[in-house]
Amino acid sequence: MNQEFRNFHKRLKRQHLENKRYRSMGKEESGEAWSFAIGDYSKPVFSADFGTSTLMGVSESIYRTEETKESLLGIEKSLEQMILQLLEKKDGGGPIVVLDFGGGLGLSFCRIARILENEINEGKVKLIISNIEQNFDIHLAAESRLANVGLDMSPIIYALENNLVEYVEAELTGNDTKDVKSFRQLKIKTESGVIPLIGNVNLIHSRMSLVHSNIPEFHVPRIFELLSQNGIFIDSSFSSREPSPIGNESSLMNYETKPSFDIAYERALTDFHLNRILQVEIGPNKGKKLFSTILRKKDSDHPLVWA
């Protein structure tokens, strides 16, 4: 057994153990599990001095004031504007499907949902928030997690009461099993019928989700295969250092995993025909260097990165 195989076997075993632990977190009533997975994306997508305190998803409520508590800020506004661009280019068919991969409470997606309420009710937009936790109680989790950081849970309550977002339990595995639901087999209901998620997601956002992978050579391709023909992937995991050429998350990994991530991202750029966007393309901050990793299909010129 060579060293490379032993390394992979060790990482695979660790992944199985960690996934089992992550799934059980939804059953913990303390609300402490995944306390950083609030899904609050109020920071901008371009470079700025955020400081190391934001590295592990510390609450972004510091960006909000009484006047802006109902407004879309930072990445939220960028996502909304890119969704609107996708709607403008839409030519029939099903809805614009937007996924917050590993989004936890999905607080920002719930804020966006309220702004795009008409488009969602008309079946033009579908917002999905995924988690790995089993029996995830969104009300219980929101009450405990948001109270800890002084955030208002009314956007989540409003989105749930008005069916504006959909929470799903799914993992980047090959098939459904007794304990696992796979993204590859996940189907969603839309106004135009039931569609598989694979190959139909127009925009994927991720924050501190892929970083938990011990086997990125499997997980990275499986998130990109969810993208539609003209899809875009946004990873807003922030680092206090300069991002690597292929992904910010690589600066947060241990020495065993980082090389595999680098290779997986490099292959994904080729295998899935992706270009990396390096600066804001449209909006008041046009031309500023991006601090998020944003990858868009080579054959697509939209949505443009707005900030």
Could you walk me through the main structural features you see in this protein, from its secondary elements to its overall organization?
The protein has one domain (3-297): 3-Layer(aba) Sandwich (Rossmann fold). It is α/β, with parallel strands linked by helices and 307 residues long. The protein has helices spanning 3-24, 74-89, 107-115, 117-121, 138-149, 154-161, 216-224, 258-271, and strands at residues 96-101, 125-131, 166-169, 187-190, 193-196, 201-206, 227-235, 274-279, 289-297. The strands form two sheets. It has a seven-stranded mixed β-sheet. The chain is globular and about 60 Å long. Mean pLDDT is 78; it is low at 27-36, 48-59 and 239-253. The longest helix is centred in the N-terminal third of the chain and has 22 residues, at 3-24. Helix 7 links the parallel strand 6 (201-206) and strand 7 (227-235). It starts with a helix and ends in a 10-residue tail after the last strand.
By CATH, the architecture is named 3-Layer(aba) Sandwich
The quaternary state of the protein chains shown equals: single chain
Specify Rg, calculated over alpha carbons: 18 Å
The outline comes out as globular
Percentage of β-strand residues: 15-25%
Average predicted local confidence, pLDDT: 78
Q: Strand sequence of the main sheet, in spatial order? A: 3-2-1-6-7-9-8
SSE ordering = HHEHHEHHEEEEHEHEE
Structural class by SSE content = alpha/beta
- For the terminal residues, how far apart are their CA atoms? 50 Å
Helix percentage range: 25-40%
Q: Which residue ranges are poorly predicted, with pLDDT under 50 across at least 5 consecutive positions? A: 27-36, 48-59, 239-253
Q: How is the CATH topology named?
A: Rossmann fold
Q: How many distinct beta strands?
A: 9
